[in-house]
Write a structure and sequence with these properties.
Two copies of one chain form a homodimer.
Chain A (H helix, E strand, L loop, with lengths): L13 H11 L3 E3 L6 E3 L1 H20 L3 E2 L5 E3 H4 L3 H7 L4 E6 L2 E9 L4 H11 L8 E10 L13 E11 L2 H22 L5 E5 L11 E8 L5 E9 L3 H5 L3 E3 L5 E3 L1 E8 L1 H10 L16 E5 L4 H16 L4 E4 L5 H11 L3 E5 L1 H5 L2 E6 L5 E5 L3 H26 L1 E3 L3 H7 L4 E5 L7 H7 L3 E6 L15 E5 L3
Parallel strand pairs in A: 3-7, 15-16, 15-17, 20-21
Antiparallel strand pairs in A: 1-2, 4-6, 5-6, 7-8, 8-14, 9-10, 10-11, 11-14, 12-13, 17-18, 18-19, 21-23, 22-23
Helix pairs in contact in A: 2-6
Amino acid sequence: MAQQSALTPQAEDFPRWYQDVIAKAELADNGPVRGTMVIRPYGYGIWERIQAELDQRIKAAGAKNAYFPLFIPESYLTREAEHVEGFSPELAVVTHAGGSELAEPIVVRPTSETVIGEYMAKWVQSYRDLPLLLNQWANVVRWELRPRLFLRTSEFLWQEGHTAHATRADATAYAQRIHLEVYRDFLLNVLAVPTYVGIKPLSERFAGAINTLTCEGMMRDGKALQMATSHELGQNFAKAFEMYFQSDQGQQELCWTTSWGASTRLVGGLIMAHGDDQGLIVPPRVAPIQVVILAIKESPEVSAAVSQLADELTKAGIRIEIDRGSGSFGRRVVDWEIKGVPLRLEVGPRDLEQGKVVLARRDSSEKQSLALNEVAETAATLLAGMHDEILHGATLRLEANTHSVTSVDEAIEATAGGFAKIAWDALKDGGEAQLRNEAITVRCLQRRDGSLPADETESDLVAIVAKSY
Amino acid sequence: MAQQSALTPQAEDFPRWYQDVIAKAELADNGPVRGTMVIRPYGYGIWERIQAELDQRIKAAGAKNAYFPLFIPESYLTREAEHVEGFSPELAVVTHAGGSELAEPIVVRPTSETVIGEYMAKWVQSYRDLPLLLNQWANVVRWELRPRLFLRTSEFLWQEGHTAHATRADATAYAQRIHLEVYRDFLLNVLAVPTYVGIKPLSERFAGAINTLTCEGMMRDGKALQMATSHELGQNFAKAFEMYFQSDQGQQELCWTTSWGASTRLVGGLIMAHGDDQGLIVPPRVAPIQVVILAIKESPEVSAAVSQLADELTKAGIRIEIDRGSGSFGRRVVDWEIKGVPLRLEVGPRDLEQGKVVLARRDSSEKQSLALNEVAETAATLLAGMHDEILHGATLRLEANTHSVTSVDEAIEATAGGFAKIAWDALKDGGEAQLRNEAITVRCLQRRDGSLPADETESDLVAIVAKSY
């Protein structure tokens, strides 16, 4: 590094580092209305890659995309009692439209179980219509008093899946399938974030759910981030919206429903799970720019080599950007490091005289001098391996900073810089409350072998506890 | 056709036919809040194809996607006088959020010139930052008193591009580039809808624009639909949001901006430009399902052949759906015709005994018997040619139903079932108002050779006039 980083060091002030990197990498800005967010092109480019990868997995799991309205009649929200209690403090309400006051106030959707329930009830008549598997990509609004870009914003972007099934077993199996084949798979194989996959204890469940599955990632300060959740809604919404179907026995029965979502919060998770004092580290499969080609100095030879390399890399299916920029070279290197672009190709007149360029990795200090005709193949090879290396590093950190403990006091100590693993039974007599006093929560419950329990009453469960975002 | 169509014939009642086809093809439903829309999976599948094709062209034109907030402070809207006047009757206003009344009411975006103007002003410092080329995919709200699914809904989905340039000439050239390379190209080569491309007269311009470009398509009842618009905003928004940049001469100058959009209204255009009394006709490039494989009757042989054909077609890059459905065969054929799937493959036990299946086109009454191993290649060939044939048919209708006239009275007569072409000069002394009394408007102005004029004051322009949606 020729120059000092422009960012607050993580060890000095992690939240400040997070703010700095979002601003300097040009990921997002605060919106004009409190708690809202402007996602800038580089941040949105990451989100587009996340969307494409999740969407492909959601479709492979058989769900189809649809779109339901932003505006929900206030009366819909009140039909499921726990749901309205959970959401009403966060609602934004439209009272005027088209120049006059509305007869019934309209709620800006905080989530769409209610409106989708209403339509599923119309569309589902017979067991032949089940399962009904829908997903939508949408914006939702939950008023935030302590907003934080990507992590907690009053408006955020997400996908929300909603499904209806004939039996509880089908609903449970589908929620687990989405959770493992869509979310866990995406987190491991695209975002390179290993997570603890488990169920939420009652105290942390979604409003209206009978079971909530979660993927909990570890950020570089040792805190947890809930990356995605999937809910078994039992028959709660089916009852509220009268979702009956005729069974193959000819009886009227209530559906069993699920919902599941992941949001722009994933961008926050990506930043905090991988970033270092030099800025973002964006794993190659989610990187909008995989290789940045830097002209060290303008000259006809440099310009020609940059164009040729750009062509070759693009033909190899690599996403590139060219920087012929006019600022100092050192400054530009720092800026691209902040943006976390996996590979940086430095093209300068002196190296070119020997037919060479320099290729630098963002995730290590490794640099190599390459002949021009080696660049495309070497870059492709490095990018292919880099995902696994970043994931491996994150997995080592997750393991090293997860401490098995046997008492609440030990758990409190262990979560100063990581996660604690403790028998769920050890938290039952007031232990969960004692942790909560220290801003520590049960992130999820797992079986001893790491698999998903049916519910929190199963015996011999393990709790993963941590401070969290 | 074995069975009668389930739709109102177009000639009997075109608006009713439109409603029927949307319901029966399962494209969309009315939402619970007046004027809103639920887009069902088949309708959304068409929109996803539209999005992908437009997005690719927008990126090729150099614009990058970003995301700006749904909520805009009311005060932003009032900064550009014409803009607020144009939009205030259509606004939805949030007055309460997070459990209390807001100090300043918040507007749900009807379009985003204002909020994007605010941020562009921050991001643009120097001529080196220009052009700044942004696009967003978003929902917007404009309260509709006479809603019609896809055509006029209180909430709709769209892309809105917003760009800032150093000179008027650059802004003009970019707006024209988008209009021709993105919109006209997409309409011709994906939606198979030929359009009149021209500028709007002053009376039809976007609120705050100095010039509006439009693509006007002809629906099967002879009415016009505005398919996409691009606006030169001059320096109006730059002034309102203080978008200054330092020129290469070191002076502070105001930017020139553009905006351009296309919405879910395109789905309405697709329906009305191509559909017939049997239902939708979806051109193959925008079809979510290009070939439907119908099992005429369940049997092990049929089931095996259906699976084999599905594999082969999928491998050939064709989007398919399998219908092993249990209803009557005739009824299922009618349903797939309503959905407008380009090709229908009928697989039955009798044909299979001779190693044959039947392939039927949706856009003609042509049917052919094929050997199993000919299916994938024949389907690919038919799909490749079908786009041009559908476009050719639409172009012939557009030409046959556009009448060159010389007087306002003739124009009124000609627009009973099509468009009229008339010298713009002939409409200047009250002619435009006279047409408007008959619910006929100037859809666009062109040069005699069909090219784009600089503005409506150019001499010797031609007006395309029509009734419209």
